[in-house]
Specification:
With 390 residues, the chain is mainly α. It is built from 13 helices and three strands, in the order H-H-H-E-E-E-H-H-H-H-H-H-H-H-H-H. It is 68% helix and 3% strand.
């Protein structure tokens, strides 16, 4: 018995299961984010804005449209997505440059990363990083990077995006995007010698970028010994440690965080994972990480089952971008890497950011549709075996 696209019933069920493994974790993390944003911000929001639900309301304004965008992205044909990827990147670059236009760009905490349209404020870098993944997918699907000459245009595009993000300045997103670009390029077939050369170049460049700005040096020193300057650069990391340490195995209980009482800066955004650790403990943290792992596994699995090169690369790139950002955020709040401002995907406060992440999840889920060519060549044992695991 067969159904859409020549698939039998069991194959259609496998595709649906894979699709749910992308959609459900994304929505679950978003809903958890709404709860934790309220818990982390209610006190500060009440003091600063007179409304304990201030940040939650803003997040809801991103969550509801985000679900609609997620569905629209899921339905969007991959062929059209490939055609539009270059235009999407071009628009993203224009938006990245627009943040430097006086009156349009918004500066906060010394960084100009936002465009304020009056009714909405958003970070173009959130859009640009996923647009870049789609553009690289298009380029590598047409000319795999097995030769250096095929890297020129993709790397020029990546360099422009990274330079504009770095100029904001936003080193955390720059590093996350650069790492994702490297992983996507390696997966597309980059020669091992070139991989080593690029890795060495990146490792040499990072110290230069750190030394170029004094505040980055102070952050690095705070990471090495936060208690050397506990009231300044080391303060946020120390408070994060306190939150995580207080949580223990089962946490102090939902809504019972003590660090949210103006001790932990950016508790509702960059350091929301610390509040999760404090209130829900190790068990809660493992649950959150499990949701990310399911999403990442399903996204990469989706890349495996695609027949066309663009969809393979796009599914992998979108998934890896989210994976890298989630990993870096958790690494920062646990003191595994130097402190840097990077939101936790789907969870941290930021309505426009949530809309972008849900859209990216929708695009990834769309690559599992039976209407598209996803049936695997049976001669390819690795992919065929991987497919049958479902």
């Amino acid at each position: 018995m067969t159904d859409n696209g020549g698939f039998n019933v069991s194959e259609l069920r496998a595709l649906k299961k894979l699709r749910m493994m992308i959609i459900v974790p994304a929505i679950a993390l978003s809903v958890l984010g709404l709860i934790m944003i309220y818990s982390a911000s209610s006190y500060s929001a009440k003091i600063n804005y007179g409304d304990a639900f201030f940040y939650v309301k803003k997040q809801l304004l991103g969550f509801v449209p985000g679900l609609l965008l997620m569905y629209a992205a899921y339905k969007f044909p991959s062929e059209k997505l490939k055609k539009l990827s270059t235009w999407a990147l071009a628009v993203s670059v224009i938006l990245l440059a627009a943040v430097f236009i006086p009156g349009l760009g918004q500066t906060s905490y010394g960084a100009t990363r936002w465009i304020n349209l009056g009714f909405i404020t958003f970070q173009p870098s959130e859009i640009a990083k996923f647009s870049l993944m789609l553009f690289l997918a298009k380029m590598y699907s047409e000319k795999p990077p097995r030769s250096v000459k095929y890297l020129i245009l993709p790397f020029i595009a990546a360099a422009v995006v990274l330079a504009l993000i770095m100029a904001e300045p936003n080193m955390s997103v720059t590093l996350a995007v650069a790492f994702a670009v490297l992983l996507v390029t390696v997966a597309a077939g980059l020669d091992n010698k070139v991989v080593v050369a690029l890795t060495v170049a990146a490792l040499c460049l990072i110290p230069v970028l750190i030394i170029a700005e004094p505040y980055r040096v102070r952050r690095l020193l705070a990471f090495l010994d936060p208690w050397a300057n506990p009231k300044d650069e080391g303060y946020q990391l120390i408070q994060s440690y306190y939150a995580i340490g207080d949580g223990g195995l089962f946490g102090v209980g939902l809504f019972n965080s003590r660090q949210k009482y103006l001790f932990l800066p950016f508790a509702e955004s960059d350091f929301i994972f610390s509040v999760i650790a404090e209130e829900l403990g190790v068990i809660g943290c493992l649950f959150v990480m499990a949701l990310y792992l399911v999403f990442i596994y399903a996204g990469i699995k989706t890349a495996f089952i695609r027949k066309d090169a663009f969809s393979r690369q796009a599914a992998f790139g979108l998934t890896i971008m989210i994976a890298v950002q989630a990993l870096l955020n958790i690494a920062v709040v646990t003191g595994s890497v130097p402190p840097t401002g990077l939101p936790l995907p789907f969870v941290s406060a930021g309505g426009s950011s949530l809309m972008v992440f849900l859209s990216a999840a929708g695009l990834t889920a769309g690559f599992t549709r039976a209407e598209d060519p996803v049936k695997l060549p049976k001669s390819h044992k690795l992919f065929h075996r991987s497919y049958n695991v479902l």
